[in-house]
Amino acid sequence: MARGDDIRQILNLAKNMRDSYQGYSIQMIEEECGVSRRTATRIKEIITDIFETEEVFNPNSRIKKWRLKRGTLDRITAFSADEIATLENCQNYMKTQNCTNGCDLLPEIIKKMKFTTSNAIQNDVDALLELQGYAVHQAPKIKLDKEVLEKISYAMLAQKYLTFNYKNKKGEEKTRRVAPYAIIYSEYTYLVAKGDEDKFPKHFHLYKMKDVRVIDEYFEKDENFDLKEHLAKSFGAYQDLVPMNVKLLFSKEVKEAVENYSFHPNQKLTFNDDGTTTVEFTAGGAYEICWFLFRWGKHVKILEPKELKDTYKMLLKEALGQV
Questions:
Q1: 262-265 contacts: CB < 8 A, separation 24 or more?
Q2: For residues 181 and 225, is the Cβ–Cβ distance under 8 A?
Q3: Domain 3-76 - what CATH class?
Q4: Phi, psi of 13, deg, nearest 5
Q5: What pLDDT is recorded for position 136?
Q6: 160 with 217: CB under 8 angstroms?
Q7: Per DSSP, which regions of the chain are E strands?
Q8: DSSP secondary-structure letter at 295?
Q9: What does the buried/exposed string (b/e) look like for 220-255 if buried means 16 or more CB atoms within 10 Å of the residue's CB?
Q10: Helices 6-19 and 26-33, interaxial angle, to 10°?
Q11: Is the bond preceding 305 in cis, omega lying within 30 degrees of 0?
Q12: What is the mean pLDDT of the chain?
């Protein structure tokens, strides 16, 4: 056997020895693995050392045969029903979050996991999936171009520049040449990238990126860039160059909901004597913060900063103008 095939061949044989009722003789191992009797004997000894084997008693034959004790290989290589069901639920959740690129890989992973399990386990998986689920957020989602995602992924791994045409908020189209750093999945999907003229990484809507190309030119990634730290400065996927110190006051009617809600990783909650709750955090993205606060209706009041108050009033005025 070639050295690289040893483990694969031994594991395949162990799986067959687990499933075989009659067991495997040394000669059968020779034939299946295409090895000499001496090597077959050594393989059988390796399997015996690693797994629990038992000799199959056959009064009509003097040829010794062995098989794995039931459950031995399963404990090492198989996955539980809970593990597989959890991954399938993760796949469903990722679809609700518009993370379609990652979802494309999961069915094949789940298929490989199920290959190592018994029919009984797979039946348990089906039963668990019937009892578990996610409430799908029925909101419009921007369709993602799989080819664009593949180009971005390749460029990030190879550390090559991307070029694309992009329209700004004023509707002006410009060709951008950027170093791609990361992808953020949210209601919209964004590319985090830094252009030659940018002091800080910027966020680009994927659906606005046209004529995306990977160019054969390498970039050096900023060693100080950390995606977690980068996202901690933002609210959702929005980020400003100067984050705001946000201070909100929630009414006593929603105290329990606020207490169990994560507004931001750096949040600070203060439970006031009158039953209200003060929430403080530092983040950028005034528009997204305001859109988020709309869902709390009359139960939230912006205390600080004035910039956020003004943005909230402006958006309310614009919305009322459409009624």
A1: 264/235, 265/232
A2: yes
A3: mainly alpha
A4: -65, -40
A5: 44
A6: yes
A7: 53-55, 66-68, 160-167, 173-185, 189-195, 202-205, 210-218, 244-250, 268-271, 277-283, 300-304
A8: T
A9: eeeeeeeeeebbbbbbbbbbeeebbebbbbbbeebb
A10: 130
A11: yes
A12: 79
Tokens coding 215? 């160019």
E-assigned strands of 186-294? 189-195, 202-205, 210-218, 244-250, 268-271, 277-283
- Using an 8 Å Cβ cutoff, are 282 and 276 in contact? no
Tens of pLDDT, residue by residue over 58-92, are: 777 888 898 887 766 666 656 767 777 777 767 76
Architecture per CATH, 244-320: 2-Layer Sandwich (3.30)
Look at the block and give the residue holding tokens 């797994």.
51
Whether the Cβ atoms of residue 282 and residue 244 lie closer than 8 Å to each other: yes
* Cα–Cα distance for residue pair 241/233, rounded to 1 Å: 9
In the chain, where does the domain assigned CATH 1.10.10.10 lie? 3-76
Q: How far is CA 3 from CA 11, 48, 61, in A?
A: 14, 20, 35
